[in-house]
Amino acid sequence: MLIGITGETGSGKTTMTNILKRRLGYIVIDGDELAHDVLTIERFNEVMSWFGYSPFESVNRKFLGELLFSNEELMQRYNDFMYPLIKEKIDEIMSSSDSEGFIVDWNFLPSTPLLNECDITILMKCNENLRRERVKMRDGINDAYFNKRNRAGLKYQDGDYDYVFINEGEYALEESVSKRLEGVLWK
Length: 187
Fold this sequence. Notes:
With 187 residues, the protein is α/β, with parallel strands linked by helices. It is 52% helix and 13% strand. The protein has helices at residues 13-24, 31-38, 41-50, 61-69, 72-95, 128-139, 143-152, 170-181; strands at residues 2-7, 27-30, 102-105, 120-125, 163-166. Helix 2 crosses helix 5 and helix 4 packs across helix 7 (143-152). The two termini are 16 Å apart.
């Protein structure tokens, strides 16, 4: 079983992932974490060359984000560049485990072929102001950076997913998950 969880930054993907992990015991695969793992200095410098920059001595994800968030075409090129590397890591995790299920938590899931491999897909949604406050606190960013990141994000369509959950807080979300997924994922 492969469950894909996606949504905008700060929408509650990790909260949903943790709820399902507690209930099901599945292995969690964090797409963003894998993206950080595979972005070596060599790959980072290759991407920076797209913008005309000379090689850097270390990976600067915030600077890269600022560049990518302001250029939709290069963001897609970056995703296309990174996806095979991330997918290889996902395949390694899944093939090296005897778990009966996996949960992929990744905001870029809809822009990849992996979305179609998921047995169940879940879109997380949340009020923008609440997402903004969560992300600012979690990532230590300001409003301007959140706005840039938010504008550059994927556009999610409710009808593309098996389930859509509105995250108004962990307790309410857990209750909603229990009601809607009972009989689907557990008895």
